[in-house]
Amino acid sequence: MQKDLKYKRILLKLSGEALAGPQGFGVDPDRAEEIARSIQEVKDLGVDIAIVIGAGNLWRGKVGLERGMDRTTADYMGMLGTVINALALMDAMEQHGLVTRVQSAVEMKAVAEPYIRRRAIRHLEKGRVVILGGGTGNPYFSTDTAAALRAMEIDADVLIKATKVDGVYDKDPLTNENAVRFEHLTYMETINRRLDIMDSTAISLCMDNNLPILVINLWKPEDLKRALFGEKVGTLVTGS
Question: Domain with 178 in it: what CATH number?
Fold first, then answer.
């Protein structure tokens, strides 16, 4: 079955909110388990999977900044939050029999390996799911940018941005019934239209290195599997 796959190594970008329960905050074990099941189904296809996760369910740096917090401090707090989410996801996946490794760009040896590119690639080659926490390890860079950077470092075939809607729209589809979904966009179109896919640094990084971005609905596991076989699902962002 693997020979039919269009994408054999993926970087999956998850928002922190993906782990939040109905209240929109914290870590919901049921959500983590649901994500783990989806990842297990994809792993069974023979796909190499690395994951970058955000921390919006635990900490919003914008809130701190509005109260006068130093930007660097706020960003480091967010990086630590991503490691908490990475550990929660690791536990859920290992309960489903997946072998995982958590690596962090912010060194904390008691709970995660330090991020080392060649070691991450070796884990993938051995069939392990690699969860990458700590962002880039630097303030002023989002987890979107971390996802783009790590995707290129591990030689991923595609960066998959998993959201709660089935692609990219010209307006918010949750509040506007007339919103139109795009099947395909170029990098420049997403930047010029200021579409809410990823931040401009992440998109520019993907554009400069010709890394495709695929935006799909996280909560439709079949969509992720269909996308891996090259079916038209969600919104694909490429150079042309």
Answer: 3.40.1160.10
